[in-house]
Amino acid sequence: MGIASLPPGLEGNFIEVSSGGGSSWLAFNTKRLYTNAFIIQDDKILLGYKKRGFGVHKYNGFGGKVEQGETAVQAAARELQEEAGITAPLEHYGTFLFVTEGGPDWAFQIEIFRAEEYSGTLIETDEMRFQWFATPNVGVGIPETTVVSAAAQAVVELLPIPFDSMWESDRYWIPLLLSKRHFIGRTDFKSVGETFTLEKWWFGEIGAREW
Ligand SMILES: Nc1nc2c([nH]c(=O)n2[C@H]2C[C@H](O)[C@@H](COP(=O)(O)OP(=O)(O)OP(=O)(O)O)O2)c(=O)[nH]1
């Protein structure tokens, strides 16, 4: 797949990882910047259950709008503090456009960050209820009779990432984020009230050389 196959709104030289859906992309006027941040440790990922607002009842990273005068990474840090009570050395790993039919006529440009460490104590906030989930490699091949440390045992008991309760296209890029691959993408949804249906998506990864 070459550059010619990139969805409108994306530029660069990327290797396609996943794509699907209908035949044409939605039109949009302009882009608005948003952030989304994940803490990813050896075998677990921190998500929040969104208690109100856009994406209510879904699990997601922590994030929101980039305010005037802020950079994306500053906004990501502020939102992580506001929604989960922690600070973290966030690193940028991806960007995707999120366009809706039946929603705004602009595209969300969502900047994705991750960190392995964090400082502070996790708190439940009005917006998010935090929860750790096991990343896919966890628990595989551990025979029942194997003695594992208390810490490892706690991880084994975490639930797997709840993709069925997340934005529908997250399943295509979260694996890239978990394996520290820089990515870009676009996802078009149809929205009716609070129900969003995935119509078309494209995700690709970029070689380390360009970052
Ligand atoms: N994982 C994932 N996150 C998404 C998708 N689409 C989408 O908007 N988001 C994220 C980006 C933002 O983190 C969040 C939307 O921002 P928000 O409405 O919570 O922003 P905010 O906190 O600044 O808003 P507000 O409380 O000020 O109204 O949802 C998606 O397809 N997947």
From TrEMBL:
Alphabetical list of PANTHER family matching this protein: 7,8-DIHYDRO-8-OXOGUANINE TRIPHOSPHATASE, OXIDIZED PURINE NUCLEOSIDE TRIPHOSPHATE HYDROLASE
Source organism per UniProt: Bondarzewia mesenterica
Places the protein is found: Nucleus
Xref: Pfam families: NUDIX
GO cellular component: cytoplasm; nucleus
Catalytic activity: 8-oxo-dATP + H2O = 8-oxo-dAMP + diphosphate + H(+); O(6)-methyl-dGTP + H2O = O(6)-methyl-dGMP + diphosphate + H(+); 2-oxo-ATP + H2O = 2-oxo-AMP + diphosphate + H(+); N(6)-methyl-dATP + H2O = N(6)-methyl-dAMP + diphosphate + H(+)
The protein's name: Oxidized purine nucleoside triphosphate hydrolase
Keywords in alphabetical order: Hydrolase, Magnesium, Metal-binding, Nucleus
Cofactor: Mg(2+)
